[in-house]
Amino acid sequence: MLYLDIVRSPYAHAKIKNINIEEALATPGVVSVVTGKDLDAHGLASMPTLMSDKQMVLPIDKVKYQAQEVAAVVATSRYAAADGVEAVEVDYEPLPVVVDPFKALEDGATKVRDDKDSNLIWHWETGDKDATDKVFDEADIVVEQSMYIPRIHVVSIETCGCVASFEPIEGKLTLYMTTQAPHAIRTVLALVAGHVGLSEEKIRVIAPDIGGGFGGKVPIYPGYIIAVAVSFLTGKPVKWIEDRSENLQADSFARDYHIKAALSAKKDGTLTAIKIKTVADHGYTDAAANPSKFPAGLFHICTGSYDFKQAHVEVDGVYTNKPPGGIAYRCSFRVTEAVHCLERMTDIMAHELDIDPAELRMKNFIRPEQFPYSSVLGWEYDSGDYEKALRKAMEMIEYDKLREEQKEKRARGELMGIGISSFTEVVGAGPSKDYDILGLKMFDSAEIRVHPTGKVMARFGTKSQGQGHETTYAQIIAEELGIPPEHIQIEEGDTDTAPYGLGTYASRSTPVAGAAGALAARKIHDKAKKIAAHLLEASEEDLEWEQGKFFVKGSPDRSKTIQEIAFAAYTNHPQGRSGHLLRPTQLDLSFRLLHLCRRHRPGHGRSQDPPFRRRGRLRCSHQPDDRRGADPWRSHDGDGARASRRDLL
Amino acid sequence: MGMAPALLEEISYDENGNMHGGTLMDYLVPTAMETPAWETGETVTPSPHHPIGAKGVGESATVGAPPAIVNAVVDAMWHLGVRHMEIPMTPSRVWQVLKEKGAALEE
User: Fold this and answer.
1) Which residue among A149, A255, A385 sits closest to B43, beta carbon to beta carbon?
2) Domain ranges of chain A
3) The CATH fold of domain A446-571
4) Per-residue pLDDT for A607 more than 60?
5) Which residues contact A565 (CB under 8 A, 6 or more apart)?
6) Angle at alpha carbon of residue A422, lines to A467 and A288, rounded to 5°
7) DSSP A494
């Protein structure tokens, strides 16, 4: 195993004049130092983001934020790697810094990106501006407020990290990684590194138990790509684990929305329209984990639970000298920002009108009979009873008594406040009209196997980070099949065994993968019914289901349990009912020929050598693991060193 | 954990792009000590688009809580002329506002 540690920039914006790695290479245990130029030679110095922007893996000439990755040290131990990081000397020339997005938008502002015309990434707006302005002109009352939703960090207990293990003989990469979306990562890796010969069937991503994700473990960060590249070049497993400060300073950031909102209403408290202008600070690149088709994600859910007739939203995405932000932390893609804005504005309006904030909300809620409801900014709401939910909450906290208590305390000069918020979140990402990742759209799948003894193995393309999918999915399947949940094994996180899925974030696992699980279980239920009919010599129409068994109508003792049916599915199924069982009618006598085959290159069957197969260009000092004393990069070639055995029938 | 961004968490930078709070000494994450007990209740309105009517609620507590907490703090001080509070509403920020409004206790 080799270990990776990263040299990070102390400057938020600087030119890299020189990187001196001599002393680092002389540090005991250090195997190599990787710089942006090394990665650039393989076309890996940058990677595309989900928002079609560009993110540096390692910089070639400039750093754009403090704590940015500048070089990576590869060593035989984590300690040696850290010593190597200390020994790398980087000569920086500091450049002017812009961290305020409003200043970044001014004429003559320091340009964050050399490859762009300005710091404005995009301008996006939705809603009918003129119609909204007209409603404002006619309003009895308008309230305005600016607010800042600061940048925050997910702080999962476990930081980001991976073990990248490229096996040169098989030409296969196994990436053990703390990720919320193993399949999506596999596809993205194949797209990022396809040109060096890593194609998708040769990539296995395994997400074992994860110490929290909260959206921060959806993206691919530079450390992952560096670890993969170094393993590819050395043919050895490479471990990269961030420390806490690296994690806090370099990745997993959310929010950073500067919002200016205006809300209009009638005197009686009827909300009529909302206008929102936002400056969104994305840091130096737009790497938002945003699978929607809208640059500001789902921000236009900002009409919330209320029946607005008009609304208009504008967002400007801006580059600054900060790390990339915009991951979907504790919310689905900017819903939290939208909710914060609307619920603050609603409360300000209630206070201005001297109407109880709960009452004002009740007055404006979308009514149950209005569902399915189309919001003025284009969202379809499926169902809900918002008033009932708020009334329930008010009863639980004894709202009226609290207001009395508040009045008494205020009379005594004590301060007491009561806060309410109501929100509508877009979950279950998502329908293809609104969502897309890399052209894949969004979906999830489930695969259920029932064993002969009636026990179940179910695999999903999502990945629990502590949400308890093992319980939820097992309960869903148990309900559909009548098999106790404790007899159902749930498995996720290994792309070689789990069916494809887009992962776990944005409150989507139960709505999407859970639905797939229920539908797959229903298919099995239907098959079970056919087998039961065969076993009971009855027609399917004559069978009734009660949790766990089929019985013949009117004869409850003529029944078959789901476990009996499962056994019969392997042993006594009706002809033509199963496509996957071959039951031999006589013994076959075959002989085997053992054939030894020398596989001499990892890109077995490829006509051209993949570029990485040649000697790597990374500088290296020594290679203690290389017993032959030959070129350490040579292990890819594996020529004659190993043979594989192939059985021929 | 909607109380965390409402009361404690913020990643900020100085004008040179130096990050404040690169350690857990500076970036305040609530521990069991700061986290209150809560009571939950639910109503049921099944989704017509889902085979078992399920909706995602994994993030519910964190989406709605921050504005509810701000609304409560502002509600306590509205009569003093406080109209809005930025998050995180740290003790010093709240004290500063009370002091400006003449409502802070004497030191």
Assistant:
1) A385
2) 2-95+158-250, 120-151+253-411, 446-571, 593-648
3) Aldehyde Oxidoreductase; domain 4 (3.30.365)
4) no
5) A454, A528, A531, A532, A535, A550
6) 55
7) B
B18 to chain A, any CB pair closer than 8 A? The answer is: yes
pLDDT digits (tens, 9 = 90+) for A608-636: 444 333 333 343 333 333 333 333 333 33
Which chain A positions have a beta carbon within 8 Å of B41's beta carbon? Answer: 392-393, 396
CATH superfamily for domain A2-95+158-250: Aldehyde oxidase/xanthine dehydrogenase, a/b hammerhead (3.90.1170.50)
Model confidence pLDDT, tens digit, residues A444-491: 999 999 999 999 999 999 999 999 999 999 999 999 999 999 999 999
Distance CA A617, CA A39 (A): 9
Partner residue opposite A421 with nearest CB, options B21, B59, B71: B71
Residue in B17, B60, B68 closest to A65 by CB: B17
CB pairs under 8 A between A and B: 208
Bridge partners, A636 (sequence order): none
Mean pLDDT of chain A: 89
A248 to B29: CB separation less than 8 angstroms, yes or no: no
The tokens for B18 are 């130096």
Q: Identity (one letter) of the amino acid at A24?
A: A
ipTM above 0.95, yes or no: yes
Q: Residues 295..334 of A with a Cβ closer than 8 Å to B: which?
A: 321-322, 330-332
Contact A330 B54 (CB under 8 A): no
Q: Do domains A2-95+158-250 and A120-151+253-411 have the same CATH topology?
A: no
Note the pLDDT tens digit of each residue in A144-188: 999 999 999 999 999 999 999 999 999 999 999 999 999 999 999
**CATH class assigned to A120-151+253-411:** alpha beta
Write out the DSSP string of A294-323.
STTTTGGGTTTTB--SEEEEEEEEE--SS-
